[in-house]
C-alpha cells in the first residue's frame, strides 16, 4: 500500500508558459523599497565540512554576519557552497531552506542538482536552523500587544533572510567562477514565498522555481492547517478574534512580504511554479495570485495536499518532482543563454498521471 501511495504521488500535469504579455513589464529596483539595504558586500569566512565531497565540486561552508536580525544562530548567514571544479564561469543556483522545519527538499535539490549538473553550476545552499515564525511560541501568547510585537519580529526575520539572499548575490558578483548573469533561486513552501520576494525586487535573478508556495500571506495564515492552524486556534481563543479579524491582522502585518505587490517584475519565461490543487496550507486564491503575479509561467500541478508532492522526490516516487526541476534548470539556467525575456513559448498541457 505504501508503494502504491508513493507511486500515485507522481501523478501531475505540466503546463508550459503561454507568453503572457504582462510578464516582466516593470523592472525590479536594486535601490528602493521594502527590501532595500545599505550593507556592504560580505566577505564570508569559509570552513571545512565533515562529509564526503561530490565529484565535480569542492564543497565547503561559508558564513558571515547578517546586516539585519535574521533569527539564525549567532545572527549569521550560513550556507553550503558547492563550488564547481571545472574551468570557466558557471551559473549559480541558490537553494533556500524551510527555516527550522523540513530539511528534506533543500537537501535533495542541493545535492541532487550537483550530481545532475556534474559541475555545470555552482550551488549555494542556505541553512536555516532558526525559525522565521515560531508557531508554538506565537500560540502561547495571550496578550494582543505582545502578539503584535512577536509577529512584527517574525516579519522582520522574513525580510532579513530576503536581504541576506540579496547580499549573497552581491558576493556572487565578485566571484571569478560565477556567471552572475545567470543566477537561479529555488524555494519550498515558506522559502518559495521568500524567493518570490527576492526575485520581485532583484533583477539579477535570472531563473526561479517556487515549490508549493503562494502569494497573499495573510490568507495563508488564516486558512493553512498543519501547525499554523494550531497557532490560529490558540490565538483566536486567547484574543477573542474571528477568522476574518485574524486574516485582516496578518494581511496588514505581512503586506510587504506579498509577491502580488511585485507583479510585472518577474521573468515569467524563466519561472517554474509547482503547486498542489488540494493544498491544505496554501489556499487556492494564494496559489492563483502567485501564478498571476509572476506572469502565468510554466507550471506543474499535483492533485494532492501540501506535503504529498515531496514524496515524489524519493526513489520510490521515481524522483519525478526532482527530475522535473533539474530538467527546467538545465533548460533555463545551464543552457547557453536560457530563455531571454521576450522569447515566448506556446502553452501546452500534458499529463504524467491521472488528475482527479
UniProtKB/TrEMBL annotation:
Compositionally biased intervals (Basic residues): 344-356
Gene3D superfamilies: alpha/beta hydrolase
Location of region: Disordered: 337-356
SUPFAM superfamilies the UniProt entry points to: alpha/beta-Hydrolases
InterPro entries: AB_hydrolase_fold (IPR029058), FrsA_esterase (IPR050261)
GO MF terms, alphabetically ordered: carboxylic ester hydrolase activity
Keywords of this entry: Hydrolase
Domain of life of the source: Bacteria
Protein name in the entry: Uncharacterized protein
Organism listed in the record: Pseudohalioglobus sediminis
Amino acid at each position: 500500500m505504501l508503494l502504491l501511495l508513493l507511486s500515485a504521488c507522481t501523478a501531475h500535469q505540466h503546463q508550459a508558459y503561454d507568453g503572457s504579455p504582462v510578464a516582466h513589464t516593470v523592472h525590479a529596483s536594486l535601490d528602493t523599497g521594502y527590501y532595500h539595504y545599505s550593507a556592504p558586500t560580505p566577505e564570508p569566512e569559509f570552513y571545512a565540512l565533515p562529509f564526503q565531497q561530490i565529484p565535480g565540486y569542492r564543497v565547503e561552508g561559508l558564513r558571515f554576519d547578517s546586516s539585519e536580525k535574521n533569527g539564525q544562530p549567532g545572527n549569521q548567514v550560513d550556507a553550503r557552497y558547492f563550488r564547481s571544479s571545472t574551468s570557466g564561469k558557471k551559473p549559480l543556483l541558490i537553494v533556500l531552506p524551510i527555516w527550522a522545519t523540513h530539511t528534506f527538499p533543500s537537501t535533495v535539490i542541493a545535492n541532487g542538482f550537483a550530481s545532475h549538473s556534474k559541475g555545470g553550476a555552482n550551488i549555494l545552499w542556505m541553512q536555516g536552523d532558526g525559525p522565521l515564525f515560531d508557531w508554538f511560541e506565537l500560540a502561547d501568547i495571550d496578550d494582543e500587544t505582545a502578539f503584535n510585537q512577536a509577529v512584527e519580529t517574525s516579519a522582520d526575520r522574513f525580510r532579513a533572510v530576503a536581504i541576506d539572499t540579496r547580499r549573497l548575490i552581491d558576493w556572487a558578483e565578485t566571484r571569478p567562477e560565477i556567471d552572475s548573469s545567470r543566477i537561479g533561486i529555488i524555494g519550498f513552501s515558506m522559502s518559495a514565498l521568500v524567493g518570490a520576494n527576492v526575485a520581485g525586487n532583484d533583477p539579477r535573478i535570472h531563473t526561479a522555481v517556487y515549490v508549493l508556495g503562494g502569494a497573499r500571506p495573510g490568507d495563508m495564515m488564516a486558512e493553512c492547517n498543519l501547525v499554523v492552524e494550531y497557532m490560529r486556534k490558540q490565538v483566536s481563543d486567547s484574543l477573542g478574534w474571528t477568522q476574518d479579524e485574524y486574516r485582516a491582522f496578518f494581511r496588514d502585518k505581512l503586506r510587504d512580504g506579498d509577491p502580488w505587490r511585485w507583479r510585472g517584475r518577474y521573468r515569467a519565461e524563466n519561472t517554474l511554479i509547482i503547486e498542489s490543487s488540494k493544498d491544505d496550507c496554501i489556499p487556492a486564491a494564494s496559489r492563483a495570485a502567485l501564478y498571476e503575479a509572476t506572469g502565468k509561467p510554466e507550471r506543474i500541478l499535483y492533485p494532492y495536499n501540501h506535503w504529498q508532492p515531496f514524496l515524489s522526490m524519493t526513489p520510490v516516487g521515481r524522483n519525478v518532482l526532482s527530475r522535473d526541476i533539474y530538467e527546467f534548470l538545465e533548460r533555463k539556467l545551464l543552457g547557453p543563454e536560457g530563455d531571454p525575456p521576450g522569447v515566448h513559448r506556446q502553452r501546452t498541457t500534458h499529463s504524467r498521471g491521472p488528475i482527479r
